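Hi support team,

I submitted a single chain yesterday and got back a structure, but I'm not sure I'm reading the C-alpha cell output correctly. Could someone confirm the output below corresponds to the sequence I sent? I've pasted both exactly as they appear in my results page.

Thanks,
R.
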Amino acid sequence: MYFSIKEKELGFIYNIGIHLVHFGLKCASTFNEKIKKGIVGRQNTFTILQDNIKANDKTLWFHCASLGEYEQGLPVFKVIREYYISHKIVLSFFSPSGYEIRKDSPIADVVVYLPLDTKKNAKHFLDIVRPELTVFVKYDIWPNFLNELKKRKLRAILISANFRDNQSFFKFYGKPRREALFAFEHIFVQNQGSKELLQSIHYNNITVSGDTRFDRVSSQLKQDNHLDFIETFKQNKLCIVAGSTWPEDEDLLIKFINHYATKEVKFIIAPHNIKSQQIKNIIESLIVDVVLFSGMNAKELKSASVFIVDTIGILSKIYSYADIAYVGGAVGTTGLHNTLEPAVFGVPIIIGNNYSKFPEAKEMILNEGVFSISNQKELNLILTELIENPKKRSLSGNSNSDYIKRNKGALNTILKYLGL
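Hi R., thanks for writing in. Yes, this is the structure output for that exact sequence:
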C-alpha cells in the first residue's frame, strides 16, 4: 500500500510540475523570443490539427524534441512516408529550433508543436490524430501522451534511444517517466548499455540497432553537394570548415586565423547564432578579408580568406569541401554539435573538451579521427599539424569515414521490425 500511494503521489507531483513549467515558460517568454515562439505555437496546435485532419483520415504520428532528433529519425520517416502513401503524417516538435526550421517538412502533412504534457491535452490530441503508428525519437518521453496511447492500445515505438544511468527513468522519483516507457511496444537502442538499463527496470522488448544518424549522414554522400560559390571561394586551396560555432569557439578560431593568415588556406565559419550582432563581432575581430554568404560576389569570394555562412540549411553540403573540420559547442557548455556530418566526408575533426555525453566523439577520438582541445595553445598545435601534415589528415579522415561505414544499419533493423 505504501508504494502504491508513493506512485500516485509522484504522478500527482509530475502533473502539478507540468502546470508550473507552463507558468514559468509564459513568464520567461516575455524576455526570450525562442520561448515565446513555443508558447504562441502551442496555442495554435489544436486548431491546425482540426483544420487538417478529418474523421475518416488514416494517420501516423512522428515526434521529435528538436531539429537534431528530426534529422536522426528522418531516414525512418522517409521510408514510412513512402510505404503509407494513403495516410496523413503528423510531425510534432517540442522545441522551436525544430519546428521553425522544419515546419514545411515534405515528409509530413501536418507539422505542429507538441502541446504541454497534461492529461487533457493528451486526450484532445489523440482524439483528433488517432495514429495507427507513433514513432518517438531518442528520449523525449512525455508520460501523459504515452499513457494515453497505451490506454487506447495504439502502436508506438521509440527509435535511436540512448539512456544513461543518471536519467530520471532509473531514479526513485522517475516513476511517471519510467512507466511511460512501457507504452512502447518496442524500443530500438543505440548501444548495449542502454539495453541493460532498460532491462534493469524490467523492460525487455529491446533491440540494439545502433544510431539512425549514421544512416542519415551516409545518405548525404548520395546527394548533390555541389555549391558553386564554395568552389569559387575555395579554389584549389586547403579549406577549414568550422560548423555550428559559438562565441567561445569563434574566439579561439579568430585568434588562430589572425595569427596564421595565409592566402594558401581558406576558412569557412558557420556560426550557430546567425544574428547580425554576432556576425558583426566576428567580422570586426578578423584582420583578414572576409566575405558573407548574404553579400557575396565572385571577386570577393576569390580574394577573401574567410567565408562566413550567415544562413542555415547548407552546412552539411559545405562539409563536403572541408579538408579539416572544427565542430562547435564543446569548448563551452552548450553541447557538442553533430560530428558525424563532417566525418562521413572523411575529414579530420577538432572539437572542444566537453564531449562526455557524446559516445561517437569518444569513439572517434580513440580512433584518432577526432582531436579534442581545451585552450588556444592546443588548438594552434593540432590545427597547424593538420594543415602541414597531409598524411595525418588523410589517416585521420579515413578513420572517420570508416567509423561511419561500420555503424550503418539501424534503418534496416527498424524497417524489418515494421515489416517495411
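A quick pointer for reading it: The radius of gyration is 23 Å. Let us know if anything else looks off.

Best,
Support desk
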